[in-house]
Each structure stands twice: as C-alpha cells, then as structure tokens.
Amino acid sequence: MLERIVAARSASGLELDDTVEKRFLRVGALSTQAVTAWMAGESLERAREVGLEVWQIFGQLAAQRAAPLTEVTKRCLRWRDAGGEVARECAAQLGLAQGALEQALEMLQSTLDVTLVHVCECFESERQRADEELAFLATHDPLTGLPNRTLILDRIEQMLARSRRMQTPVAAVFIDLDNFKMINDTLGHSAGDELLRAVAARLQGVLRETDALGRIGGDEFVVIADEVSLAAGPELIAQRLSEALAEPFMLLGATSRVEVRASFGVASGAHTSAEELLRNADIAMYRAKWEGKNRCVVFESEMQGAVQSRMELEMDLRDALANDEFYLAYQPIFDLKDMSPTGLEALIRWKHPARGVVQPEDFIPLLEETGLITQIGRWVLSEACRQCARWHVAGYSVGIAVNVSGRQLDTDEFVSDVQQALADSGLDPRALTIEITETTLMRNAQETARRLSAVKALGVRVAIDDFGTGYSSLAHLQSFQVDSLKIDRSFISGLKQNREGEAIIHTLVQLGKALSIETVAEGIEQPLELSQLRQEQCDSGQGFLFARPLDVAATETFLDAWAKQSAAGWAAMSPATATRI
Predict the structure, then answer these.
(1) Residue 453 contacts residue 481 (beta carbons within 8 Å)
(2) DSSP one-letter code for 566
(3) What is the spatial distance between Cα 79 and Cα 85, in angstroms, rounded to a whole number?
(4) 308: which DSSP letter?
C-alpha cells in the first residue's frame, strides 16, 4: 500500500516538506491498519480507535496550514485507489468470490467517506478559528490583549450615542508613559514588552466594569468612562490610574526594578465624534508633557491652537537642518587666574526664514521629545570640531566644549560620532570637551560610564554641566573620570544674595580640588561674582560679564581685542575697579 501511495505521489509531481510527507505516510499506514482490522472482522469501534491518530494528524495539518485541503483530498483518494488495487490482487490470488471483493471495496470507500468528512471538519474548524483570530487582531492589541484604537473608537461612538439619548457625560483619559523609551533602550525590547503588559494589568485593575481601557499604540493607553465612573469627575479616574502606577515594577524575572511615570490628558463634555474626544484628550496629554510631565491636564479649547503651533514648529524643525537654518554661537571660557580665554562653548541657534531667531528654550525641548536631538547633536559636534580646527590653523589656541544630550549617549553610535567628527575635522582630541548634565550622567550609569570611557580613550575631555543640580555621588565622579565640573549659574547668582551662596561655592570648588577636577563657573554676570570666584580659586568661568554667545566673526574679533588690551586689565583688577565689558 505505502509503496503504491509513494509511487502515485511521485507521479503527481507535487512534493511537500519532508515532515509533511512523513505525516501523510503515517496517515496511510494507520488508515490501512484500521480498514484491515475492520475487514478481518474486528468491530468498527476498534477500527475507529486505530484511526484516532489520523484525525489528530489532519488537525495538525489544518492548524499549521502545512497542506491545502485539495491536496489532502487527493492524497485520500490515492490511498483508496491503492487499496482497491491491492484488494483486487489479493482476491485474485486467493480465488475469493466477487461478493467478498465488492464488500472489501465498500469498506475502503466507507473509510474514505468518513475520513473526508473528518478532514473537512478539521479544515472548517481551523478556518473558523483563524477568522476569529483575525477578527480579534483587527480590534485588539496583540501584546496586551486590550482593545486597539479601532475598537475604542467604536465604543466611544456607542457611549456618545447613549450620552445624547440619556444626557449623561462621557470622558476619555489619555495616558502616555514618560520614561518608557529610556526603560526600553536600557533593558531591551523584551523588558519593554513585559512592562507594557504589566502596566495594562495595573490600569485594568483599578477601573470599573463599565469603563474601557485600550492601547492606542507604543506606550499610549486610553480609558473611556461614562456616567457612573464620572460621578466624582474624570480627574479622579486619572488620579486612580496614577496611583496604580506608583508602585515600582519588577521586570526580567524580578531582577530589574523600574519606576514608571505618566502624563494624563482628560477630555469630557459634549463632543460630536469619537475622534474629536480622543484628539482633545491627546492634546491635553501633550500639554501635560510640555508642563513638565508626570501630571494630569484637563482639555481646554484654547489648547488646540497651542498644539497646532507646536506641530507647525516641529515640522519646521524637521526641515531646519536640511535647509541650513541652524548655526553655532560661541561663548568664551576664561582661566580665572590670568583671565586668558582658554576655550569656547558651542551653543546651537536656529534662524528660521519666517520666525526669525528661535530661542533655544523654545526648540531644544522639542528636539529631545521628537528624538531629532540625536541627528542635530551629531551636526553640532561635527560643526564645532570643524570650526575649532579652523581657529587652530588661524592661530587661536582655544578648546571647544559641546553639550551632549542623554539621547545621544543612549547608544554606542555616540562614540562613533565623536571619532568621525575628530577624523573629519583633524582636531586634536585634547581640544574637545563633551559636556553632559548630572541627570544624563545617571540615567543609565553603567552604560554611560562605558561610553564615556571610550570617548576618554580618544583623548577627549568630559565635563559635568549644571553641576550641583542633579544627584551624582562622589563615587560616580571618580568612576566617570570627569575632567571638569561646571557649577550651575544658580549658585553663582547666589553669591550676591547671602553667605549660604558663598559657602556652597566654597564647598564645590574645594570638592573639585580634592578630586583633582577643574571647576568652571557658569553665568558670571557681576564683577563681584568674578572677584569672589577668584578669591575661592575657582579655575575657570564664563558669562555675560565677559561676552554673550558670539558668531564666528564676532568671536574672532573678541579674541583679537582681548589679546591686545583686556587680559592685563582683568588680571590686575580688584573688586573696586572691575567693570563689565
């Protein structure tokens, strides 16, 4: 039987996967055993027991879509035909009566009929299961099992229709995880997926049965609620959701403990459509992010104009680099002992053809939020190195300091960017200082330390910007091999206000000396501040007292003028004679 089945398959010219072919041979063997047992006089139930494995194999073929129904049917017909040939040959050899042969052939046909019915049932069951799965996937998020945007919009429309009939309120609470990207980049995508599932479970656990939770996409969720849940106001729902996320999450088999923060946007009241309600909640959520994240904001009509302006600004920002609208300004840094300029801090500026000069505080946060800071930061690094190299050729012996975003330090690509900028410009690595904030330093301390060590190995200096405003420890300062501490200007301005300010500066400067780390004072604006910093033996400083950020030509003019007439006067100045230039 099996030899004839294989011969018929070969003659058909269609060969399936080896594993599938072995399953078909197993089906042929089992079916033959079952019908032979039946022909030998055993009960039909016994034959059916033998054939149970056959139905399981057909079920697997259907579930795995290993073979189409038409091919399975053809294989069954070939088995019947091969069985008929063998039965006729045996009947001839044994000299059996025609009636016995016909009975055997009827048994073969009956077995085939039953088999084909079961095959069709298996494939139909699988088709229905696949249809149900597709229907579920069309309306649900496959990761969390929550309703997706399509289903949420449908449910909102139902709620709005009921609201119009019953005059009851409907609200949407939009939720966005503030620090998800950092967690995902730090711990990996599997941990990120685990966190999203855990967040979904937490949020679901504090909602009423009448509320609906959905995942809109990425790290965004939405809750929709109507009259019962809104009795105390939609803000209360957001508060419950926030409290649910307050407890840290344990990920990766409880080896990683992470805290989640979220921004909430609430929209309620009369809305003409589900899209409008969801959009307004989304707008409120973005407003919460702009205001500092980790908070709840209720939608107000005037927000829409602000969001539109923000979107337009973002679109302009995306075109700015290609349109050559960015440029760098440079603020001199001085050695406070002899008042000689030792370096320049490169600061990005944006000159839009219609908006004019856009202030850094208006677009840098947007660069961070959109992730454009990585691309723009790469350009700043390259341009600053190139310009500093030109100044070296022109005879200006100054270094260059470049601010680096936490997002740039999130990947090893940053080290390659530094190498490329140095190679393209030909700048001596010792002339480049990378400035990072304390917060950036600590967001993924181990990986950041590794990347900064790789940068240090190139000969590049590392400075902590806005020092004193973050939470780095002495141990971290040593492990990160920091070259310079830039004392935040808030401490400098405190010098003229009270003795506590003086004590803080003294402590920070002495800390730098104890660790053999250079101290740089930022934001020096008053002669008295300069005098006290020099008395405390702060190493370097910068600020409006000396110069505001300058373009390339103005920087060269300033350096030339300073070299000719200013250095001697500043070096010899006293608090009584110091004046602002």
Answers:
(1) yes
(2) I
(3) 10
(4) H
Specify the residue for token string 């048994």: 107
Provide the sign of the torsion angle of the four alpha carbons 562, 566, 570, 572, taken in this order. Answer: positive
Identify the band that residue 576 occupies on the pLDDT scale cut at 50, 70 and 90: very low
CB of 140 closer than 8 Å to CB of 151 = yes
DSSP state of 294: S
| Tokens found for residue 238 | 């957001």
With tokens 């059996």, the residue in question is 96
Three-state secondary-structure class, residue 136: helix
Closest alpha carbon to 468 in 487, 447, 450: 487
Average pLDDT, the chain: 85
Residue at token pair 């409008």: 276
Angle, helices 234-246 vs 189-205, to 10°: value is 130
Q: Which residues, in sequence order, are bridge partners of residue 212?
A: 224
Structure tokens at 19: 């594993």
Coil/strand/helix, residue 269: coil
> Mean pLDDT throughout 231-243?
83
Nearest to 460 by CA among 429, 494, 439, 423: 429
Q: How far is it, in rounded angstroms, from Cα 379 to Cα 407? A: 14
| Rounded Cα gap, residues 459 and 322, in angstroms | 31
CB 184 within 8 A of CB 143: no
CA dist 558 to 386, 396, 443, 461, Å? 20, 11, 38, 25
Q: Are 473 and 500 in contact (CB under 8 A)?
A: no
- Between 150 and 66, the more confident residue is 150
Q: How far apart are the first and last CA of the chain?
A: 105
Alpha-carbon distance 119 to 64, whole Å? 14
Beta bridge mates, 282: none
What phi, psi does 14 have (nearest 5°)?
Answer: -110, 115
Please list, in sequence order, all residues whose beta carbon lies within 8 angstroms of the beta carbon of residue 379, skipping any fewer than 6 positions away.
321, 326
Q: What letters, b where the CB count within 10 A reaches 16 and e where it falls short, cover 440-449?
A: bbbbbeeebe
Question: Measured between alpha carbons, how far is residue 314 from residues 246, 309, 370 in Å?
Answer: 32, 9, 8
DSSP lists the bridge partners of residue 326 as: 350
Amino acid at site 463: A
What value, to the nearest 5°, has the Cα angle with vertex 243 and ends 241 and 248? 110
Dihedral sign for Cα 98, 103, 108, 109, please.
positive
Q: How many CA atoms lie within 13 A of 444 on its CB side?
A: 23
At residue 182, φ and ψ (nearest 5 deg) are -65, -45
Q: Higher model confidence: residue 442 or residue 406?
A: 406
Nearest 5°: the CA angle 258, 263, 265 is: 150
pLDDT winner (highest mean) among 415-419, 476-480, 563-567 = 415-419
The per-residue pLDDT for 24 is 80
Is residue 581 a contact partner of residue 566, using CB atoms and an 8 Å limit? yes
CA gap 100, 35 in Å, rounded: 15
